[in-house]
Write a structure and sequence with these properties.
It is built from one helix and five strands, in the order ββββαβ. It is mostly beta strands.
């Protein structure tokens, strides 16, 4: 999967606040993502995040 920092991930499952959009802050063995509605930051294993991605909205990467 081609996920880069600052991309917006649309997830299959919603965060408890009701939003399903997250911004990617860090990539590696773990992903660090931030909920766009409440600002809560989550670190989770790459495998779990990639499994739950519905769509990736990419920003312009130069």
């Amino acid at each position: 999967m081609d996920v880069q920092v600052s991309d917006i991930l649309i997830m299959k499952k919603k965060h408890p606040c009701g939003c399903n959009q997250f911004e990617v802050l860090r990539i590696g063995m773990d992903f660090k993502i931030r909920c766009l509605q409440c600002g809560h930051e989550i670190m989770a294993p790459r495998r779990n995040i990639e499994k739950n991605i519905r769509r990736i909205e990419q920003k312009n990467h130069d």
